[in-house]
């Protein structure tokens, strides 16, 4: 049945109005919107908690609910700058020109309360884009349009939000699906947008290109002709271009593709000075089809039938003050019921990345490519593999038994790598800010929270540990400069977190070469931690910088526990290299530290900060407050498969205290009563406050005035994800999901960009702690050199399925009652030992062969007689009865 356009639009409007109505806050009871998001509540009702476990489906944001305007999914290659995919399929932001600005949109916005320094102005690093989300930053004109001819009708539609009654955006990073919906048209139009993203392959995941693949299905009974045209404005040298320069568009033809090369040159013919500019480079728009039409200068003015008949202009030159836009198009005849696909891409080349005083400059992709045309030629040549493997990862990640929303939220933060937070220099070195353009130097006390990179692209983290932390930044006494060349001192939490990361990087290696090559420096870095314990009680007490930007005195539970976990990890590495002397040193430290932490820093309910015996509480600290990271060391231990570093019952008590005192289903009244924090959660939103004061002390943080006090009243997602990961590991699954969902809902597209978790600027690195919650939900443990793998799901245990990534391959693990399957999708994996949850097992079969096993505390451990190597496409079947 055909729907009249007027009625369809009216229905859309009613849907949108209903969505807006249901979002109005209602004090004192739970309300939900059409997607079952908890909006405000005193206590989450049981039915809402139950809904968190439901598998659900991919999140689809809709134009009719006003959910597209803020969406900006990073869709360029990792460490290649920032290109956003908008909710309607257009690309925006275009921060690819090496400007190194702070924030995706440097701005200051007004706020209704004091923030940190006492002012009511919020900068990018204070959360400007949380209060006033960015949208429509378009320094260049880019888009696509569709021309349809069917029957005696001709119709042209831009593929944008204004031209369709409905558009849906499916938020499945790293590949998004956008549907353009109009029931009156004879076709269905779908866009799949991505840049190649292949775990373990950082080079092919780091291509400066965005692929836009359009599918058009003819749902009518008669043939349809469809032409898709894309255009790109030449804005090369965006900031440096002057009247002395001119822009040039040239039609280029490669093997199986045709497009436009957008360049710039100096009018007098000497480009030497221009080529040294930070934003110098070129761009390329192409269609992956040799039959594509291309025009170096698209006609100006509104789209008409004529503008789809591209004239074969080979080259066009214009002054920089004139608009120059190239276009490509593909013509299709679509029989009834059939679907066609047209693949387009936009590549860029801005090689002159530079930071003063940093070793290594220029962009890594410049090692392989001379310009954007070379990028395009590579992508087209390898398109079948790049698209297939990217799609395989997307399908592998989301083909899980865990809730869709959970899989989205725990993974999408790795898109931070595809923003200007993260860079890779021509030397191959990884270097990053904390958030876009804010706080330089791959800061150890921030990046140590970011679990995603070491699991998805472990080679990047191994190189950073070796080249920077144990190289450029390593001091003679073993201290690690916490911002590389940008700093002159270590940070104690960053130091401990880096030793733990070294253990993770070792585990995510195929052999022990990394550990053995770096052991002497790892030992030195660990001894530095041990030497910060001045009184020898296993509890670090030397005043040093930490991630809350202050030097704290005394014995601080979260730092003490983190140091214990780090030294324990070092002891395990020492055992692997047979350094028994150091094993004993580490064991002595961790045993004393654990015993004293549990007896001296546990107040019967949660862990505290014991002040320095001389200074007392005259300096800033957390003291008797309930601090979000108080048992962070145990959380980290679970990430690398270690057993307990802090007593389980005391740890659970501390986590329950955090949920009781710090988690707020509506932070509004709390932040109103405790001003000074940055606005990372607003009234009507849920979150976990960094520090609360259950004892109601008058000066709980020791000092009355310090700008860092504002931190204690904030909700920062990286810390929240860390706690959620820990709760998940300890069996507090309801609480872990509730906290993760709070973050997910704060970043719903109706309010702000779902892909931009903000702390000190946009796309903040600490938010990649979210991947750790997935790790603990799967109960995943892995040690590549030992060939060890284990799974212990925390939910859906009778019918569980989730992805896994190892040193050299990735795939899917599933368990259904006594049947366990590892299906490898990519690469390879070598296995010696496997461990699964199960009790009462009498027999274990590998395929049809009965194999020996041992049981302990509800787990079955299988030690293979000889290493087993799985290749992509193979699977391992284990049955337990």
TrEMBL record:
InterPro entries: 6-hairpin_glycosidase_sf, 6hp_glycosidase-like_sf, GH116_catalytic, GH116_N, Non-lysos_glucosylceramidase. One of its GO terms (molecular function) is hydrolase activity, hydrolyzing O-glycosyl compounds. GO terms for biological process: carbohydrate metabolic process. It holds the Pfam family DUF608. Residues 72-385 form the Glycosyl-hydrolase family 116 N-terminal domain. Residues 493-771 form the Glycosyl-hydrolase family 116 catalytic region domain. This is Beta-Glucocerebrosidase 2 N terminal.
